[in-house]
Specification:
single chain; 113 residues; alpha+beta; Arc Repressor Mutant, subunit A; 6 helices; 3 strands
Length: 113
């Protein structure tokens, strides 16, 4: 819940809360860029689960990917103030939700006037 204009950091916190995603982030914490297959193995996930987690982490702006040959290499986004920025802005431009999802979320959230 947002109080007096403060942003809701729950969406970013939710990315860390799921154990599989947390293990993927831990595997990337040393600064390496790794392909999905290696991240799946290091995090103890199936290829499909790793793919789903990587998609959510990319959408959340915590990681990005670079193609090299047949593989995409994932790495943590190098933004020292990433969490401070997320706390100030409800949704960074990279994290924009589709209009239908935004409308559905707005209809469920309490109104503060």
């Amino acid at each position: 819940m947002s109080i007096h204009g403060d942003s809701d950091i729950a969406p970013v916190a939710a990315l860390f809360a799921e154990p599989g995603r947390a293990r993927v982030l831990q595997a990337l914490a040393d600064g390496r860029a790794l392909p999905a297959s290696v991240l799946a193995a290091e995090a103890g996930l199936s290829a499909s689960a790793a793919s789903a987690h990587l998609a959510k982490l990319c959408a959340g702006g915590l990681i990005d990917a670079a193609r090299s040959g047949r593989h995409r290499y994932f790495r943590l986004v190098d933004r020292p103030n990433r969490f401070a920025r997320c706390a100030r802005a409800p949704a960074p431009p990279r994290c924009a939700k589709p209009a239908a999802a935004t409308l559905a979320a707005a209809s469920r959230s309490p109104r503060h006037y």
